[in-house]
């Protein structure tokens, strides 16, 4: 007989979802009200304001899509591209490849700018592609590539695109709340994120933001947006500034409570404090990993503090290590994707999970499991190195 599902209590230190703050879990349990209730509309306006703060933007068209980050990505592409358009897509990991797929499904042509996995997008390659394709409408790139743990220079890439009269689509799924996202300073035109990473919220919502230039491009379309659900012109009837909202869809009321609480927590901490916290614990984690003799995949100057990609030692069964960590320690870390599959682990330090207790727990557990597998590592040094890093 089927029984009530009670999930195990895990420590989530993979690429997402991350551990959810108990305050956010509590917010989910608040009474459900109608998605057109005046009190819910008031909360919607607060969510928009706090999203603008998290994105560092004044964009009026800033809102949460009622679906996960992949839908936020699709919303950006289907609203800005029409059949026959040309988009330059920078790929240095899995999610640049998903951008290409979106371009093609819009009936547009993708011009690829490719860099090695684990390396940031090369602005010189983008500049060459822009010069070779003066008719390009959009430049798309991933700010924080979740598959590799590398961060690209969004401000430089957006500036190059603007100089060639291109709109920019930027994936900030893993960066919002963990490292700086500055839409207005960058000059980015369409940005999407997710709730399940550094915001420490539950999965299922995708914050997006569109610049005035992007809105003008949407309004100038010669064809309808191919997705009814993600058509920003329709969605804004519900998320707009008017007190009388037009029904578009039944919003996930309780999930939006949780996003409101997540953004409130971020606001209370302060953006710069949140970024500094992620850097501090990242520094300690890396010190511990390297003290064991493990090596980081991404160079320090472009490494994401919230997503740490470490090479698997020779002779170690990486999947067996993850399985043992999960079974014996209730600790989740992530596997590699694409060409990095079987070669790396992805260790997340995101939002609520980014703390000293988790860093020390992860290092101690990983060291023990590696020793059991007979890995050639320096035993007993990881936690000490991390503590030394915390001591400054």
TrEMBL record:
<dbReference type="InterPro" id="IPR015422">
    <property type="entry name" value="PyrdxlP-dep_Trfase_small"/>
</dbReference>
<feature type="binding site">
    <location>
        <position position="346"/>
    </location>
    <ligand>
        <name>substrate</name>
    </ligand>
</feature>
<keyword id="KW-0670">Pyruvate</keyword>
<comment type="similarity">
    <text>Belongs to the class-V pyridoxal-phosphate-dependent aminotransferase family.</text>
</comment>
<dbReference type="GO" id="GO:0019265">
    <property type="term" value="P:glycine biosynthetic process, by transamination of glyoxylate"/>
</dbReference>
<feature type="domain" description="Aminotransferase class V">
    <location>
        <begin position="32"/>
        <end position="336"/>
    </location>
</feature>
<dbReference type="InterPro" id="IPR015424">
    <property type="entry name" value="PyrdxlP-dep_Trfase"/>
</dbReference>
<keyword id="KW-0808">Transferase</keyword>
<dbReference type="InterPro" id="IPR015421">
    <property type="entry name" value="PyrdxlP-dep_Trfase_major"/>
</dbReference>
<dbReference type="GO" id="GO:0008453">
    <property type="term" value="F:alanine-glyoxylate transaminase activity"/>
</dbReference>
<dbReference type="InterPro" id="IPR024169">
    <property type="entry name" value="SP_NH2Trfase/AEP_transaminase"/>
</dbReference>
<protein>
    <submittedName>
        <fullName>Alanine-glyoxylate transaminase/serine-glyoxylate transaminase/serine-pyruvate transaminase</fullName>
    </submittedName>
</protein>
<dbReference type="Pfam" id="PF00266">
    <property type="entry name" value="Aminotran_5"/>
</dbReference>
<feature type="modified residue" description="N6-(pyridoxal phosphate)lysine">
    <location>
        <position position="197"/>
    </location>
</feature>
<keyword id="KW-0663">Pyridoxal phosphate</keyword>
<dbReference type="InterPro" id="IPR000192">
    <property type="entry name" value="Aminotrans_V_dom"/>
</dbReference>
<dbReference type="GO" id="GO:0004760">
    <property type="term" value="F:L-serine-pyruvate transaminase activity"/>
</dbReference>
<keyword id="KW-0032">Aminotransferase</keyword>
